[in-house]
Amino acid sequence: MSGENLKFGIFLAPFHCLEENPTLALERDLELISHLDGLNYDYAWIGEHHSAGFEIIASPEIFIAAAAERTRHIKFGTGVSSLPYHHPFMLADRIMQLDHMTRGRVAFGVGPGALPSDAFMLGINPLNQRDMMLEAIEVLVPLLKGEKVSRKGSYFELNEAQLQLQPFTKPMVEMAVASQISPAGASAAGSHGLGLLSIGATSAGGFDALASNWEIYQRKAEENDQQVNRSQWSLVGPMHIAETTQQAFENVQHGLPKWVQYFTEAAALPIAPSGPNPAQALVDSGLAVIGTPDDAIAQIKRLQQASGGFGSFLQMATNWADWQQTKYSYELFARYVAPVFQSTNDNRSQSYQWAANHHDQFSNSVGAAIVKEIQKHETAAKIEKPAKKKKNRPAKPAK
Question: Residues 206, 155, 109, 141: what is their CA dihedral angle, to the nearest 10 degrees?
Fold first, then answer.
């Protein structure tokens, strides 16, 4: 779906219920990426999680390497690499290798880490995670540009550290910082001229913070002599669409209850709604679209108005519906939603309208041309009418 306007993709955590075979679930995630590549989606951002059993991709880099071999043009992002969990040099080295292996089809999304259970297992104080992220970003940017870095920080040490490879993507791989409600992500992204990834854009707090996050992002960029623009900003929100609203609501009953249970019991993130009808609550709150392509279009327009404009919209890959209905939802989005925001059909519409405006003229000319050909044929037939031939009679026998 590449174009001058909005780009589209998915944000794949992923979410897989505990009853499912994890090997087959990961294989289906790879199949989904191939499906999206065939539908011309622009991005697939892949998550990193280490606990709670639902979000089972531990290394987005490994997943991306496998998915890149199955696809032609879709671009991959780490969505996101949790910087406190890694030494920045080792992480930069892996991303640089992927930049070459994918021929520039990789983006580097970074954040402090989402699941507090991950941080607990690693002995990391959640209060330090954002400081650890900011310190890591300060050395990741020059490392990914191919520069040499020496630094003794609070959480790591680098001594004349330089990656062996120069960046395939010049001047460096695309990089973005995750942001939700806290200003930390927008501030860090703006300070270094990086992209901004608003993961909770459709939640109540995230939606209300869109304008303020952009203000922080732009102001920090100006303060640090960096250039940023709205094409670098990606917004994330869950969607499932079908041909009718009723069908969409029926579809999500397949996986939505388990998804709500996960966020209520294990994930320690205030995302899932409460109440007897979570699907309706998700729609009523504006957090999710469960409906038709028209509802998806309305949601994106709502986000554009609230934010002032952005570059990419990423569907949160929820697995609320079964496999076939999930694939069909992405297909409906590609066929009927994306073209609205990419001017894909502008020339077609203009051509149709032009033909419609001249319909009578063209119809009359076609009719006149047919009459003319009929008259030409009749005239030619009269001129070329052959004379009757005399029948050859056998000679009379001599008497």
Answer: 120
